[in-house]
Structures are given as C-alpha cells and as structure tokens.
Amino acid sequence: MDENGEFFLDHYSLLEIMKYVISNRKLKEPRKEKIDDDLISFVLAHEFFLQLFESHHKLLYEDLQLDLACRITKLLIDLRVNGSSNENEFFWRSHLQYIREKRNFNVELYFGHQKHVIIKTKEISTDLTITEDLMISVNVTGKELIDICTSIPNLRMLHLDSSEIHGSLPHTIPHCENLEELRITLSSGGCAAQFASLAKLPNLKTFVISGIQASGSQVQFCNDLRKWHRPTNLQPLTLIIEDFISGKSQSITFGISESLRHFKIHQSYKFSQE
After folding, report:
1. Rounded to two decimals, what is the model's pTM?
2. What is the per-residue pLDDT for 253?
3. Which domain of life is it from (predicted)?
4. What does the buried/exposed string (b/e) look like for 17-34 if buried means 16 or more CB atoms within 10 Å of the residue's CB?
5. Which of 107, 126, 141, 179 gives the lowest tally of CB atoms within 10 Å of its CB?
C-alpha cells in the first residue's frame, strides 16, 4: 500500500489470485460454469491480466477463447447501447479481433422481448456454442446497430423480434455485410417495398418477416413483393412469412417477381377439445 492508501499488486500476486480461481475450477466441477464466469470477468478487467492468463495458462486460455469472445461481444454491445463508458473498450476490440484471427466462429444476435439480448458465438468446425445474456435499458438506434454490425464482421444471424429500432433498417442492415439470416417484426404501417433493397444483400440466405397482420398492411405487403428482385448471380434467398396471412373472408393476390423459384404455404390447424 502506498502513501495515498492505494493497494498495488505485482504480477506474481496476480498470478496467485488467478491460480486460486483456477484451482477452484478444478475442485468444484459442478460449479465450473460459475468459476469460469469469475475467471473471465477477472482477466477481462485489465489488459495486463489477460496477457498473464494467456502466457501462463495457455491451454486453459485456448479452451476459454470462445467464451472470451462471447463476453467481449456482450461488453461492447453494452457499452454502445446502454451508454456506459469503459477505458477497456479499445483493448476489448483489439483482443476480439485477435481471437477472430485464431478461431473460425460466427456470431448470432437475438434482440427479443422486453429489451432482452442473447449473444451467441458458434465455432464452425466443432459447432461449440457459447451464450451470453444482456438487458438493454433503451431501444437501439440505427447508428448503434450500424456500429454493432461493423464491429462484428462475423455476424451471421440477426433477429430483431419485438425490438424497436430507431432508424431505417434498409439503410442499417447492409452494414452487416456478411449476414446470412435476418428476422424482423413488421412495425405498424410497414410495407414490403421498403425492404426490397435487402433482397440484394449478397450473403443473405434467409429473411424471416412476422407481424404483417398486426401492422395492418397485409394486402399492400403482399402486392409490394413484386418490387423485390434477387440478382441471378447471387445464391437464392428464402423469404419466410410467419403470420396469419388473411382471414376467412379475405383473399390476397401475391405479386411476385420473376426471381421466384419456389413457393410453399404451411397451414396450421387448431383442434378443439370437447
């Protein structure tokens, strides 16, 4: 402790603390997940801590690399959306890039109900998946979503279920240039025409849209599909509409462009119990 009452630890002391946490991990296997959480939180608290962890516990570091990537992704989204500040942001971003160069993994983001966000990192070769949860305090802006997309170049799946985005999705989503699956809930007054440009995203494979009936624009939505065009040099795009397309007394004509290759309707049935 110095004259100002501040307590400093040298790297030997830090290694002893780290060793203690790791020893608990080995002794208490049923609580391994909690121990790993404590260890990850500790080593991400400072760049020097992580350097010590990587150099002195190399095998364990490699074992937890995907966990670290998932936690860093969560921390960066928290910084961006919840507006908190942290001097570790640059260190987190640079280390996440370092992990991307070492491990081949994808990121999936699910913005769900009540501002709940699920972050998943999935290793391609092993299908190993790590999950983190985050609660955000405000609705996401278009600018924040652009920053999230550009800072996560391996983002492959983006679900925006019941999450309000303040901004134009057709102008925001193209920044997620490697996106393969997109899921959105149509807002009130929304139409298919506004998403026509997204059909041209080169890597997009699946586009899921729900909430058409609630938006009050069923007929207009279906008619506007004729404005969608997928260039023939790109892989086919699968459009999935999850909704009650029409009532019993209402018929709808789908205006589909020449790029349509396959069309299927799945009808669900309700069985009454007597």
Report:
1. 0.83
2. 56
3. Eukaryota
4. ebeeebeebeeeeeeeee
5. 126
